[in-house]
Amino acid sequence: MLTGIYIGKDCEFGLTDTAAILFFRTPQKNELQSRLYLKSKAQYACVGVCRTFPVLTNLHTPLQRCDTLFIDQGVIRGSDPSLTSLLGTSFKLEDKGDSVWVRLDQESVGPLYLNEEINPNLQPSDRKADKTHVGECLREWNRGVRQEFITIEGQRHFIGCQINTNRHMLIFELSPRSVYCRAARLTVMNEGLVFDQNIRQGNSSFMAEDNRIACGPLLGDRKFFNSEACFWNENTVYWSVKSVEEDEIVLQGCQGTEYRWHRPDAEHEGGFYG
Description:
Structural class: mainly beta
């Protein structure tokens, strides 16, 4: 099966050689679920589950409930022990020719269609930035699969994983302090980064009414870039360039947050850091 980003009306699946992230809503459309799988010894195993209720088609409507369970370096944590039976489970892929189904233990997710093939050796670029190709550096530095860790009170915690391609950003992140699971399309310009969220869990339980909207290209509008503030239009967010150096690009995020995108080197994996 080709590694890549697969998209369906009610689901999305990012498959790489080391990790996979699956999003789907139930046929009754009352539950949105995401799962993180890590690959070890040629087998994918579920290490995290996020389940939110109900499924909303407005990103800014508050959710009613969020249940999580996660394996943090051998320790299980989260809000819902009833999800324990899902941890350690895997999936099977069924190729239908023009589509793919993801077979889970008790349900099947699909049909999904390959939207973007991922090179198995997907890696960030290490080229240096200058003002003539800021946009491409934003895309290339962030590209790849990256496991996420944070340190809280001196203890290092595994919190999730990102799968970033040329056109899509998938993230599954369950920290002791927050929940952030999301799928989005992206486009870049020398003025900054634009991303359009089609799935989001955490403070919301959102999936686009027809998730296949994520198959199309994302077109940004330069007039919305502002180096002093982010711009948020419905589901689309603009982060504008504040400064550029060879090894770092600073973007203006929302609510005053700055995001520092680092060129990959021995100290940084690449991508952005808040």
